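pipeline/complex-builder :: batch 7 item 3
reading input block
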Amino acid sequence: MKKYHSTVTRRDFLKALGLGGAGAGLASILPPFTNQPIRDLDELMSLPIAGMKRPSWVKTVEKPTVEIDWPTIERFDYHHVMWAAGLKRALGSQQYDQVFVDGRVNRRQWIADNKPGSRLQDVAMKEANHYAPVSFIGPQTSPTPESLQVPRYEGTPEENARLVTAFMRLHGASHVGFVELDTDTTEKLIYSYDTGSGEKQGPRLDILDYDVPVENLAEGYRIIPKKARWVIVYTLRMADELMKRPITEVGDRSHYYMYNLKSLLQGQLQNFMRTLGYMCLGEAANFNALGVHTGFAVMAGLGEMSRVGHTITPEYGLQQRVQIVITDLPLPSGKPIDFGLHVFCKTCKKCADHCPAKAINPATEPTWDNGGLFYRAIGIKRWWLNEPLCNAYIRRVNGCATCFAVCPFSKRHNMSYNDLFRRSVASNPAMNRFWRKADDFFYGSGIHSDSNKFWELDLPPFGYD
Amino acid sequence: MFLSGMLIGMAVLGLVVFIVIKSIPVRWYEWLLGTLGLGLLLFSLQNTVSAGQEYWPGAPLIFFLVFGIPALLMIGIAIGLSVFRILKSNHANADNNITGK
């Protein structure tokens, strides 16, 4: 058999993962000069899809645009967030229960009323969720180098980055970035307690000098070996046409589908890394686990932190979900980026103007003062949301994300106007107020009110192009 | 979009070749106005079509009104100024021929 670039027979490895078939599929969508079967990982890594070229107006910077006081930051207990036990604690049991009653009543009423975007067919689409099992350790179903009787994969951090990026992009990730864990800074973005089940506090996340990861749920802990020093941060882009229809069941599907995809992709990534000979510690929850997603996305240079606390990327604005895994495969650490977003958020405030729950802080300047509230982290200068108000509203109306829809950055790139807007924000903040007004003038709120029309659209796969 | 770009490019090239061959005198400001107008028209068309493809209600029309109309006016003025001057010049020549000057 002819050997290609690698000394290790990675073709077997590819075949084991079914990547050979994917390679054939990829060949059909690539330009003619690459219209050859992909024979090994090195060839895959050399393809344009393996690199993540950012727009020319995105600058890398040493410090993120959001100010972080690393010495005061402490690892955060996921139990405190609104999606875990935080909402009940913030509202009290009675009001908390009422929120869910309201949600059920609203859903029933809106189906009966044929409310656009919240009819039975719309509910059916949102509830079409199906998750692959997610776990900390991973599915452990792919062969290991030991079982193949070959040495494990070895590459430079840069080669490894291209390898992982190629794999992730091929399987649906929009952005892929990396953060090296540092005890004094980025390691603090790992949760102190992981996501639990419902309102129950999750297992403790210990970072210890172990050779292999350990999960002992009976005793209530998970151990991340200290040698697993790299976080892979990736985004899954959400469908614009769903996202533009917030406060509807179809609108909410844009989030859920990406969580469905995450559950599948994470397991595949864990199996991929296992066959390479490395550990890959995943999020043991469908939505959010292991660490602060926005923090890692910012440190990896995927985007900047926005007024609403989520990551805004130069390419897709707020319209993506961020996910993470931790590995011992050496990777180069990314650098934060600056494309003028943080400064733009100061003058724009469109999300705050349109938030139906009035939960978004409209102040011009962010603040270190977190109000001493248990569900807020310390050591970060940001615009603090009224999280209980936001979360309760989402549950009452069965999905909101109006802020995602109205953000001027949440526009596609087909129109050269949007490219001009992004370039200007990156280089000329004096024009920011003009661009906010221009966004209102051309797009209005950015929300598509006729949600029933969604079903009549001629949409590309995944709802974006 | 590719096809429309090609057609516009061919039309502009044809116009320039025509102007050069016929030795039509075009002033610098007419070139400038025409070029700016053409650029604005392309910008307007690209955004109008793309806004439609992105299903933005109303945005295609607004883009055309805001950028397309001024672009057409600029091109129209540039062409109008040249044509007006040529006609005036032809008229003057004809008058000179009649009076024998």
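note: Chain A touches chain B at residues 240-241, 411-412, 414-417, 441-444, 448, 450, 457 (CB under 8 Å).
queue -> next item
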